[in-house]
Amino acid sequence: METVEAIFKVLVVGLLLGAGLPAIFAIGIRLHSAGSGEATDGTVTAPNPVLKGIAYLLFAIIAAVIVIGILWITRGTIDYYFGVDLFPFVES
After folding, report:
1. Domain ranges of the chain
2. Which parts of 21-89 fold into alpha helices (H)?
3. How far, CA to CA in Å, does 87 sit from each of 6, 13, 16, 22?
């Protein structure tokens, strides 16, 4: 049963990070484009700062996930060389 739980955890994380982050990025790109005030046919309207703000928030979430992922991968090296435990709640 432990093997099935481990496979399920890997599947969920893989779907979240493998499909979820690109989907969030695509939504952010779409919102940024819609908030810019330029249509595909060349017409220009007033920009929508709310849509652009939501897009930037989504981009910030993606950047935070990437930085946390890099820190997670290098946590052992950072702890060894600098003595800083970045994730003290996780047992090694």
Report:
1. 2-82
2. 21-35, 49-73, 75-82
3. 21, 18, 21, 26
d(CA 45, CA 36): 8
Kindly state the DSSP code that residue 89 receives in the 8-state scheme: T
Q: What are the residues whose beta carbons fall under 8 Å from the beta carbon of 16, sequence distance 6 or more?
A: none
Instruction: Give pLDDT, residue 92.
Output: 60
Whole-Å CA distances, 38 to 15, 42, 59:
33, 7, 20
User: What is the tens place of the pLDDT at every residue in 66-90?
Assistant: 999 999 999 999 999 999 999 988 8
Give the CA angle between residues 68, 73, 78 to the nearest 5°: 90
The predicted-structure confidence for 24-75, as pLDDT tens digits, reads as follows 999 999 999 989 888 777 788 888 999 999 999 999 999 999 999 999 999 9
